[in-house]
């Protein structure tokens, strides 16, 4: 299989410190991949290497099956990058700024500027000076620049920063549409899992330069699903009662006396009544909604990388 983007043991070292440590990525056409990590995890360094802006210390990167982007400059025609809203002239309008970048990028027609502004819902702001745009609008203008030449791969460094909920929903719709209709592949970095979970098909958890886990959306949904926490003095008897009297089968005995029930969330009173009637002592009975952020912290602890408080 030929990947749009692939890395093998990608490493970046500054002095004696590995900022990126043997990262392996395989990104297919149309896939939206999120790199999730806290500040200082190495997200921006990784994205800049993928953009060809920073040279790796070790390992390799392949863009569309090619190993050198600098000796194959036409590869840049297939890649759109967003590193915030830098590179725009404050006293020029949104449209004028994009038109300058269009010419620098060799995009032939002015219509691509209008189309890019429309895609990010900035048509009404096309004649507003960049300095007068809100931060969220500046972010969207940065995305419009990345879309000017209709790339096959988007590399977006924290594109959701500064967006309100409505702008974020518009961004989700746009990126999802590009993934579906144009099969545009994307690598998106973020510090917040709940921001990228609605759009990403896979999430790589980056901590101290290492991908400590890769999760698809089904795995995330499973790991963060709601459940009932039931602690009793006799888990074998309680399990029997749940199956025989309430047809509860989606549960696990996590440890002696502790049962996690993943169905019948509305039946807490019935569970309590059943246990009392059959003389099973209830030590704890409560619903739990596991937060995605808590699961990410647990992943880091399991890998021996407890994040700094």
Automatic annotation (TrEMBL):
Gene3D superfamilies: P-loop containing nucleotide triphosphate hydrolases. This is ABC transporter domain-containing protein. The lineage of its organism: Bacteria, Bacillati, Bacillota, Bacilli, Bacillales. Residues 5-233 form the ABC transporter domain. GO terms for molecular function: ATP binding; ATP hydrolysis activity. Belongs to the ABC transporter superfamily. InterPro entries: AAA+_ATPase, ABC_transporter-like_ATP-bd, ABC_transporter-like_CS, P-loop_NTPase. The keyword Nucleotide-binding applies.
